[in-house]
Amino acid sequence: MKNIFKLIGIFALTAIIGLSMVTCNDEIPDDNGGKGGGNGSNNNTPQTPIDSHFNISGTGTVYFDPSVRIPPVTVTAQSGKTTGAVTVCYEGTGGTSYPKVDAVPVFFGTYKVTFDVAAATGWNAATGLSAGTLTIADGTPATPTGLSVAIASANSLKASWTSVPRATSYKVYYITNGTNTNPAPVDPPPVDPTPADYTVTNPVFSGYGGLWGTGNSFNMVKEAENTYPCKISYSFPSQASAFPNFTVSYTVTKTANTDKRIKLKFTDHAKDEWEGGTLAEYIDLESNGTYTFTHARTSKNNFAIEINKYDDNEMTADFTIVINSIKFHDPSGNSGNSGSSGSSGNSGNALKLAGTVNTNSFTHTGLTLNIDDIYFYYVIAVNSSGESDYSDFKSFVIDKPIAPASVQATAASDSKIDLKWSSVSNATEYEVYYSTTNNSGSSSKLSGTFTSASASLTGATAKTTYYFWVKAKNPFGTSDFSPVGSTKTFMVSNWQAGLKTGFVSSNEIGLSWAKQSVDFALNYTYYLYCATDTPDNFKVISYGSPALSFYTHSVSPNSTYYYYVTLAVKGNMDNPSYMSETIKVQTGSPPPPPPPTPPAPPPAAASEPPSGGGSGQKECNSCHGSGKCNWSYSFGLSSCSGGYADCTTCGGTGKKDSKTCTTCNGAKKVKCTLCGGSGKCKYCGGSGKK
Q1: Which residues of 350-389 are buried (b: 16+ CB within 10 A; e: fewer)?
Q2: Which pLDDT score is estimated for 577?
Q3: Core-most of 106, 435, 562, 666, by most CB within 10 Å?
């Protein structure tokens, strides 16, 4: 990781030992000087505290933040329990072995938390009670993912990525690497060179111990003098790696109640180590004031400052040091060197900071964009604990967009069609074209600006097929036409038929509508249309005499259906005289399977039948107990008898206009659609009982 495990340092253990601590392994004497005993059986015998007598907070995972002290675990006795003093203890392994002591740990790791309770009136002492565990985790944010780039305007690009938990800001870097014929950059590439003088104001340090403070200001109190020496660590910014040779100036301010001398030791060290390195320079700070120190650096990564007393004399006052700034200077003036494998003078091959934001998107403005230019973007997540690794890069080639892959057109009414199409990543808007012939060359452009992948055509002609094409646009060009999409508008609804559902189940929909007064001499026929899922591609599911106004449709569970009904003169189905409104019906889930049938009970002794006789079932309301189908409203039929009925088209003669009847094919009778030809009542299964 870019700032992996910014450990607070071995000084922390020294600081712990220097503090006033309770040794948690010792037994605590009771009020009389004795050791704690067991639970008492009466009011004169002291009780012994147990874990559940206490409220505990602060355990679990804490993310390390160098500007905030790790909060201690708190343990408080519940009302009515012991009033004895509580000492919380930590034991485990973090950056180093951590003995069982009462000081809050400062290394990454997981620690067993226990607590000891002193004896109190009516209560024994207790040791080693469990409070759980405390985990100190690296607070550095995770690496951003999901990076995408799109054109925002003729001179700007927009980068977006997935939000990172605990990130307070993001740094967005980029490279422009010529045209898309150039190879991809090194991952991650070097950072763009900075001016010969680069200054970091108020640098943020990653660790402290014995010195309490935040960022770049640290305070040592007189009572903590035994915690010396202390160290704080600083990671150089990425810009520093651009300098082939450089010196560093540190500006430090010291304030104290007296002019007590202290020593600062500036040490180069390998990343994430507290000892070692090639430079050790001691600076004396005697008087209060601001000091500046300059020297050449051998490390381009990190350094540590060790703060120590000037001698072994006791401190006479508190003091504060503030690291005001750190300035990097290239004495050779060779600021054009990118620092990358001998490449120099080509800033296009080095990362540039595009900007810093506190949201998960960034619009990079002020660019000069040309066709075939290629840009590479990276993102780093930042918080007070440090910076993440670079994200995977996302490349983006400046080009006109490709055509949308598909267009879907759906009739919404007799005059409106809704459109949606596949989006194109580098499109900033779309153009929509339409025609009543399948020819894009003669199509008309739909007015309006469409920035999302949807639109609507209004004012369309009823009962007309329309064809649609879409082009994608950005500031660098317009795509070709997409593939065609088409649909047909509805006929104008001129019949308030009151089309509605009588019942809806998971597998059936009962439909009804008002009868229309028509000239029966013209031999009108009704047609019931249905479409599934979307109000498009309607098909006839039933037709018959205009005197009929009911139909039961077998359907599927959890599905959407659309219906309308028309009346047309025979032979002119495609040009109906009347059309109803369209309704939408949603089916539900099928009922759960019935539970297993329990075993039959043993036969009971014979007894008198109940008054009135019978089994107690009620008579079927549909067939009035006959068990026979007698429906007379299906499909233009007369009353059902034995599953068949006289054909009403030919009046049961088999002939129509001296020709064979096309409805019954001369059979004079047709099958009943309600019972399917069984002749049994659909609702009681032929039993006559329900």
Answers
A1: bbeebeeeeebebbbeebebeeebbbbbbbbbbbbbbbbb
A2: 80
A3: 106
Cβ(356)–Cβ(201) below 8 Å: no
Residue 241 in 3-state DSSP? helix
The neighbour count for residue 239, using CB atoms within 10 Å, is: 17
101 within 8 A of 14, measured Cβ to Cβ: no
Q: pLDDT class for 164, splitting at 50, 70, 90?
A: very high
Largest Cα separation within the chain, whole Å, is 131
Residue 34 pLDDT > 50: no
φ and ψ of 14, to 5 deg: -65, -40
Whether residue 67 has pLDDT greater than 70: no
Count of CB atoms situated within 10 Å of the CB of 522: 13
DSSP secondary structure letter of residue 192: P
Q: Provide the pLDDT confidence category of residue 9 given band limits of 50, 70 and 90.
A: very low
pLDDT at 12: 36
- Please state whether 507 falls in left (phi above 0), alpha (psi between -120 and 50) or beta: alpha
| pTM of the predicted model over 0.70 | no
The answer on pLDDT for 364 being more than 60 is yes
**pLDDT tens-place string over residues 672-685:** 777 877 878 877 87
Quote the pLDDT of residue 260: 55
Contacts of 589 (CB under 8 A, 6+ apart): 506, 557, 558
Distance CA 55, CA 52 (A): 8
The answer to whether 465 and 486 have CB atoms below 8 angstroms apart is: yes
Token pair listed for 209? 């111990």
Residues in the chain: 690
Whole-angstrom distance, CA of residue 17 vs CA of residue 20: 8
Decide: 46 and 37 in contact? Cβ < 8 Å: yes
Q: Is 210 left (phi over 0), alpha (psi -120 to 50) or beta?
A: left
The answer on pLDDT for 116 being more than 80 is yes
Neighbour tally for 290: CB within 10 Å = 11
3-class SS string, 170-187: EEEEEEEEEECCCCCCCC
Mean pLDDT of 610-615: 45
CA angle 512, 524, 660 (to 5 degrees): 115
Q: What pLDDT is recorded for position 434?
A: 97
| Pairing relationship of beta strands 60-63 and 126-137 according to DSSP bridges | parallel
Distances (CA, A) of 557 to 146, 403, 588, 673: 38, 38, 6, 21
The per-residue pLDDT for 570 is 78
Cα 447 to chain centroid, rounded = 36
Secondary structure of residue 97 in the 3-state scheme: strand
CA distances from 246 to 23, 144, 197, 294 (A): 49, 32, 9, 10
In the structure, what pLDDT confidence band is assigned to residue 323 with cuts at 50, 70 and 90? confident
pLDDT at 5: 36
477 Cβ neighbours under 8 A, 6+ residues apart? 371, 399, 400, 401
Residue 524 CA: distances (Å) to CA of 396, 544, 634, 662: 64, 9, 16, 15
- Six token digits for residue 549: 């106004």
Distance from C-alpha of 242 to C-alpha of 274, rounded to nearest angstrom: 24
d(Cα 386, Cα 5) in Å, to the nearest integer?
10
* Mean pLDDT calculated for residue range 135-143: 88
